[in-house]
Structure formats: structure tokens, C-alpha cells
Amino acid sequence: MSIQDKKLYLLFSHRLTEEQEKDAYKQFGIGSIVYLRKELLDIWTSIPAEAAVLEPVLEPIVKYFEVLLEGDYVLVQGDFGATYILVNWIRSRGAIPVYATTKREVIEKQEGNKSIKTSVFQHVRYRIYGE
């Protein structure tokens, strides 16, 4: 598979920052980044807490990812159970499941009698699940 063919598919709830995109191209040697379609993103961001079994909920997402080629990457972050299921399924296809790591900086400022804390997250790197 050439670099132009390798892709990073996104399975998480927000858009990548410019820094995350640059790092993905550099770290993975990919040719493109593929965002999840809205109807699938809606499923991924609304995993029902009351569902006892997740496979039926995830079926449309699994079907979508049947296009994965060996050596493609998938950034997976979300509901813990759904993430576990899909990380294992992605591996079974020969693709590489990854997640983003961040550094959190807490900024605290005083406004009169109030203390306001703001968390700023900065991308550090991607990691392959299980490594």
C-alpha cells in the first residue's frame, strides 16, 4: 500500500485540530484523513447507556468500516464498551486502531470572590491501542 492509499479514519466526536492533522500525516505517513458521516457520528456520540448489548447499535458503523484496508489507521475514542468492541474488530481487519494523547493545563484566575478554572488540552501524540 502506498502512502497515498493509507488513510486515517476518525471515529470520535470532534474535528481534529490543525496540530493533530499535521501530526497524523507525519506519524502515520497517510495520504488522507476521513471524517465519519453525520448519521454515523450521531450513533457514535449517542451510545445508549441503557443498552445491554452494543453490537446491534454499532452495526451501521461496523458496516461502514468494512472498507478498511490492511495498514489503514482508525482513531477511536468514545464510549468505553463501544471503543473496546471496535478496537478489536478493527484489528481483526488488519487495520491499526489508535488514540490521541493530550496534556492538560489548568488555568485558574480569581474574579472577586470566585475562582474560575479552565482546562486547556494540547495534543501530544497518537498511540496504538495495546502498545
Question: Would you kindly provide a written description of the structure presented here, covering whatever features stand out?
Answer:
With 131 residues, the protein is of the alpha/beta class. The protein has one domain (7-128). It contains four helices and five strands. The chain has helices at 18-28, 38-44, 55-64, 80-92, and strands at residues 7-11, 32-34, 73-76, 96-111, 114-128. A five-stranded mixed β-sheet has the order 2-1-3-4-5. Strand 4 (96-111) and strand 5 form a beta hairpin.
Brief write-up:
With 131 residues, the protein is α/β, with parallel strands linked by helices. It contains four helices and five strands; from the N terminus they run E-H-E-H-H-E-H-E-E.
User: What is the 3D form?
Assistant: globular
Spatial strand order of the main sheet: 2-1-3-4-5
Mean pLDDT, to the nearest integer, reads 93
Number of domains in the coordinates? Answer: 1
User: Mind summarizing the main beta sheet?
Assistant: 5 strands, mixed
SSE layout and pairing:
Layout lengths: L6 E5 L6 H11 L3 E3 L3 H7 L10 H10 L8 E4 L3 H13 L3 E16 L2 E15 L3
Parallel strand pairs: 1-2, 1-3, 3-4
Antiparallel strand pairs: 4-5
Based on the model shown, name its key terms.
5-stranded mixed sheet; 131 residues
